Amino acid sequence: MLSALTLLLLLQLIGEIFVQFFALPVPGPVIGLVLLFGGLLLRGGMSDDLRNTANNLLQHLSLLFVPAGAGVMIHASRVADEWLALSVALVGSTLLSMAATALTLKFFLRNRSPHEDQKAGQP
Questions:
Q1: How far is residue 105's CA from residue 122's CA, in Å, rounded to a whole number?
Q2: What are the distances in angstroms from CA 38 to CA 4, 33, 45, 49, 54?
Q3: CA distances (Å), 69 to each of 7, 47, 65, 75, 116, in order?
Q4: Which pTM does this prediction carry?
Q5: How many angstroms separate the Cα of 86 from the Cα of each of 90, 92, 107, 114?
Q6: Residue 75, SS3?
Q7: Three-class DSSP category at 3
Q8: Are 29 and 13 in contact (CB under 8 A)?
Q9: How far is the C-alpha of 62 from the C-alpha of 85, rounded, in Å?
């Protein structure tokens, strides 16, 4: 578990370095996840240690929202002042992500091979 956590944190650090060095408008952890994904593709899958560590982190994911919630409470007056812009951004981003998900699903369902349809039990 320690080696998997080290790998995850190291990839996050590399992502942060990329963001700072190249002045990218993307969070460092996102770059780190892209690097992890690329590494998993090259390797052909996840090790059991990484899988178990990821599952343990996901089981306690709600704890990671506590700092964000505390930050919102600290800045409650600012949130109250800018409620309209925040609401528009929240609704707009939700609608965009739903549309992107629907279009992605439509793309993948249209491009399925007949062999995949037979495996799924469809004619």
A1: 17
A2: 16, 9, 10, 18, 17
A3: 28, 33, 6, 10, 43
A4: 0.58
A5: 6, 10, 31, 45
A6: coil
A7: helix
A8: no
A9: 26
Give the span between the Cα atoms of 7 and 94, in whole angstroms: 32
Please name which of 102, 108, 23 lies closest in space to residue 117, comparing C-alpha atoms.
108
> Residues 42, 117, 105, CA angle at the centre, nearest 5°?
65
Question: Which residues neighbour 30 within 8 Å (Cβ) at sequence distance 6 or greater?
Answer: 15
72 HSE (CA, 13 A, CB side):
9
The count of other CB atoms within 10 Å of the CB of residue 113 is 8
User: What pLDDT is recorded for position 43?
Assistant: 92
Contact 49, 4 (CB under 8 A): yes
Helix (H, G, I), strand (E, B) or coil at 121: coil
Residue 61: predicted pLDDT: 85
3 pLDDT above the threshold of 60:
yes
- Centre a 10 Å sphere on the Cβ of residue 4 and count the other Cβ atoms it contains: 19
Q: Which amino acid is at 85?
A: A
Write out the two tokens for 76. 């409650």
